[in-house]
Amino acid sequence: MTNMTNRSNEEEALILDTIDRFLERDVRPHAHELESEDCYPEDIVSKMCELGLFGATISQEYGGLGLSASTYAQIVERVSAVWMSVSGIFNSHLIMAAAVERFGTEEQKRMYLPRFAAGEIRGGVALTEPDCGTDLQAIRTRAQRDGNDYVINGTKSWISNSVEGGILAVLVKTDLTAEPRHRGMSLLLVERDPGFQVARRLKKLGYKGIDTGELIFEDCRVPADRLIGGAEGRGLQQILGGLELGRINVAARGVGIARACLEESIAYAQVRKTFGKAIGEHQAIQIKLADMATRVEAARLLTESAAEAYDTGERCDMEAGMAKLFASEAAISNSMDAMRIHGAYGYSKEFNIERYYRDAPLLAIGEGTNELQRIIIAKQLIERHRV
Question: pTM for the complete prediction?
Fold first, then answer.
């Protein structure tokens, strides 16, 4: 057992070292310009394909790296500390892959997972609609069976990887009369051509570089064998399992941004001087740095705990919710403190701080708002401690 643990630790260290070198060589030198111009990082994506990041959590049986959620979270933290948008490109893709691997038919797994793992075909999940965000059971996109096909009509909005990607796992209504509503929901794999149309690429405050689109499905025909799992009415449960991994990803992103804010603030506090000494010697700045460091460590521990729970295969929506809630709020708080420490330079486009400040708020919204996370946590606390 000890030898196996040591080998696993060595493999993890090697993977993380490879990621660090990739980030320093291929991402950091270009992140500022690409983010500023809101350009899709094609060269970076190609390098991620070579590294196997699009198969990070896909089993080795299907050509993936088969990494644990714990190792995956560490990768996401490192990536996000350099440029958070990059982590979103493979996160949405891996949520889709997790739905196929956990719930797909054997034929679906053999057909798609090797291509997903290689980055040959990349995509994400299409859940949100213009009038439906957190309440997924309120979706209106309809998929009607017609012979050997489903015909999809509806609109999806705020969908990552929908412009540059080639496939999406789309949450649809296959039975409008089902009660409870989730029994009428299904998950379909829809390839871009000749499937959905991208109505527009959405402009965002932050999280730039990654494509986010609004999609229109108009009499879109999809073969019936693209229904994940082969049975209707299971879509919501299938996607919620993937969202646990997504929330761990968001938590790890929060740790990455919070850490980047801390590290840049520590460095700046030692070179910027006021009243004859470095600002890091002023108590007001020291208090901010102490709070920032504490948030980073607490967020990382919660994220590690959630990842370990996910790796056991048991339900971990409470742990993932706690990690996502705290780490995202830590990122927001640290970005604000970093801006105050940097003063006018923190407000300048020449420094990274304003990017962290724009990116961080998304983490409190994406993969379920923090308000929803609090409700999930509370319900699970009651469920697990019934008297």
Answer: 0.93
